[in-house]
Amino acid sequence: MVWPPEERESVYNSMTVWHATTDHTQTGQLAHCLNGPTSMKTRFTTHCATIALTFVCIFGTALAEVRTWTSADGKFKVAAELVGVQDDNVSLRKADGTEIVVPLAKLSEADRQFAIGGPSRPSALVPASAAPPATKNELSPALRPVAKTPAKPAATPTALNTVRDIAEKFYADLRTQERAAAAATLTPDAQKLAADKKSTLAAIPAPDDGAAAIKIGKPKIEGKQAEVPVQVRFDGNSQKTLLHLRSEGDDWRVFALSVVVGKEEKTINFETALPSNEKKEDPLVALIGQKMELDGVTLDGRRLNMDTYKGKVVLVDFWATWCGPCRAEIPNILANWQKYHPLGFEVIAISVDSDLDDLREFVTAERPPWTVVADRHPLNRNSMGGKYGITGIPAFVLIGADGKVVTVHCRGERLGEALAKLLPAGTKAGSE
User: Per residue in 254-270, pLDDT tens?
Assistant: First the structure.
């Protein structure tokens, strides 16, 4: 199997910028399992440091207060605002714009508590300067991630080493045809799909031979989630990926993999089955021109009432709180919602999060103005992600006022372009 054919370049903050060109004419299964087009000849070129891909966690400009920070021994003081906390280091920004990094342990007790439980750290994907001021119908500034409570234990060296070892085992076993060892690292739900030959694991191309073909980066653990950046060489071309793990009992288990395909990021969900159609067609593309039946339950247990969406143009967004590419699309959705909602545009965000507490935290903190459906809610009878074969997220489906699917995979500028045609200025959805 080979990686989908395209010219690829990805910007990776705090890592080496990689550029590779491939002339392959054959497409692999991966583009299909990501619910995307199977032929791409686009070139993604950007060297803007403010555009951060989701494979590493960085911190943008924080809308934080300036305070006086004091060293643990009381000898040093500096006036600065909090930028963020990562790997037990605190990033501070002084009035002249200079950023300094201070070990958390070197700060006073009061400053340590403020840094850990202080202002939410801004998203790596949305510059704060580009974020609109928060109102009751908007997301909080800079699309802040959910504020993690200090009660969550910090990552221990043992846990970090365990996660790294799992990543090494996972990627090394991708060279085998059976991939039994890689499957053994998956969550129970994902293991069952692998045993039934329905897993997206089989669609991932095999890394090249040699130790240099797989380079494991520094793991990051936050609460019950872990991420491991891994640079892999496929067919002579390097590809940056991010392995997602979840703590289940005493074990860490792999449940997803993020990757750049063409000029877009996608996340492969190993807990969703590959489409069963024999032609291996993209199941979302097959929906175009058809009615899309939706069902689901919100976080508070209310069933989704599709009658309220009749005559509306509706974006169905399959996403997850842990999915960086999904989070990166939210400002785009919000901007279009603000522009077209008065004309009849609605959004149904179907979360595939298995941890409903994380989803609840995110929704409480960000206050999205649209409906959020918990696809894995215990009261949910039918998974929409499973029904429509959503193996890669984010996945967009745009439904017209007549209830039929107009287009899919309309991320980025394509969403605004589609809405401009469906809801021209001054025309409400459903009007003639």
Answer: 999 998 766 677 888 89
Q: Which of 272, 386, 413, 261 is nearest to 329 (CA)?
A: 413
Residue 232 burial (10 A CB sphere; 0-12, 13-18, 19+):
buried
pLDDT of residue 301: 87
- Order of strands, edge to edge, in the sheet holding 66-70? 66-70, 77-86, 89-94, 99-103
Q: What is the model's pTM?
A: 0.57
Taking a C-beta distance cutoff of 8 angstroms, is the pair 393, 325 a contact?
Answer: yes
Consecutive 10-residue runs of the chain (432 residues): their mean pLDDT?
33 28 35 42 32 30 60 82 73 77 82 60 34 39 36 73 96 95 95 91 91 93 91 89 91 91 78 68 87 91 91 95 90 94 95 90 91 92 88 93 94 93 74 54
Residues 6+ apart with CB under 8 A from 327: 54, 123, 125, 143, 145, 321
Query: CA gyration radius for the chain?
Result: 22
Asked if 243 and 230 touch (Cβ cutoff 8 Å), the reply is yes
CA 286 to chain centre: 24
* Cα–Cα separations (whole angstroms), residue 128 to 28, 99, 337: 38, 16, 19
- Which residue, 209, 141, 201, 161, is CA-closest to 177? 201
- Model pLDDT, residue 41: 33
C-alpha distances in angstroms, 12 versus 167, 285, 348?
Answer: 19, 31, 31
Peptide bond into 394 cis (omega under 30): yes
Is residue 85 classed as helix, strand or coil in its secondary structure? Answer: strand
Residues 6 or more apart in contact with residue 420 via CB below 8 angstroms: none
d(CA 121, CA 112): 15
* Size of the chain, expressed as the number of residues it contains: 432
